[in-house]
Amino acid sequence: MNLYEKKMENIKENHRNNLTQPKGDWPEMVQRARRFIIIHLFTEKLTVGWMKKKCRINSHNFSAKFARFAGRTPKQFIVYHRVAVAKKLLKSPAFVDLSISEIAYELGFATVSTFSKAFKRKVGMPPGRWRKEHL
Known about the structure:
The chain is an all-alpha fold and about 140 residues long. It has helices at about 5-15, 30-40, 50-55, 60-70, 75-90, 100-105, 110-125, 125-135. The protein has 8 helices and no strands.
């Protein structure tokens, strides 16, 4: 692993480590799902369906239950944290040479379009423009 890759992994790992821990009264399946999401947060194959299958969650109202405890549905939770790390990468001088598409793929987005739409929805402007204003 080169220095650049180490910096990237450090940013991701720091984000994971700084997430608040769930309270003890959270249902076991919500805690299990949250742990799974955090471990696989930057993996492209992370979807709510995959998470539910791997965590053996069959509840039809699981997303609502997750949102009640975590403050967001599982999908919103994933996108929120991926965009938060994207903002760190976009404003970091260490990653100025990293393209928007490289950031998108590094954070687990399947396409640049999906990343750009999610970023704009959460931040209010496209990632390229946000980078220019914050770098």
